[in-house]
Amino acid sequence: MREEITILMPVFNGQAHLQAQLQSLARQSHLPTRLIASDDGSRDDSLEILHRFARMAPFHVTVLRGPGRGYAQNIHHLLRVMPKGITGFCDQDDVWLPDRVQQGRLRLQGLTHPALHVTGRIVTDHRLRRKRRLAHHPRPGFANALVQNVAPANATLLSSRATELVRCALPSAELMPPFPDWWIYALTTGTGGAVLCQDGASLLYRQHEANLLGAAQGAKAGFRRMGYLLDGRYRVWLRAQTQALWQVRDRLDPEAQVLLRRFSEGLYARGWTPGRLGIRRQGRAQQAALAAAARLGLI
To answer: Is 10 contained in some domain?
Structure first.
């Protein structure tokens, strides 16, 4: 019996690129079972585009009214209603290559443990002109997940067991951290789950002014992230992420529980560095910036 595949899509003022993403879902070599989209109060034609697509889509489409409280709350809204089975996320402005669903399904079908399938991404500009392929993080795991997300939502599919784990551990809306996909990555690895990285790329990832974080590589991305360290946003994100994980600590493996406790204590202690616990970010420069920020009390 084949597992059902649900795609979750948060939408907000996405009319510029939404139709292209929806068409790419309809052209998948292995079609998803359903798409659940949550429009968070768009003031453009996004809602009409979704309803028009729902009338002709080759799979079932549900369009929800989002809570109107921003990205994280809209994702939480979708996670609350996701059914059992394999689950994927897609952004409103990407384009999936035809084998995106099939690649993930082949890796996740029938797994008896929580797992995330993370595909490679081809970074483009807003017109889909190819720029570069994003590389995978070589060592995903809970220690990395405490300070960095290497399983971004638009590149990730959840196995049925991972879907069930998220359904059972989902925090209240008030405790949902700013980046729910980061929380899912940490929860999955903290419970012994696997991160399965695909060698090839299966989606085109647009970079434009509306991206909050954008591509993780390059000098421009490095300066942007340094700004988040200096202005305190990264510290806020870390503490919100850690608080949400603390609420479900009993689900974590014993080693992950100890690491989470020590990391939580360290976030409020000056002069402490995550590297002492083996907690590391991708790349030497980012790791050095993390250590320096910790010594300066910026995280």
So the answer is: yes
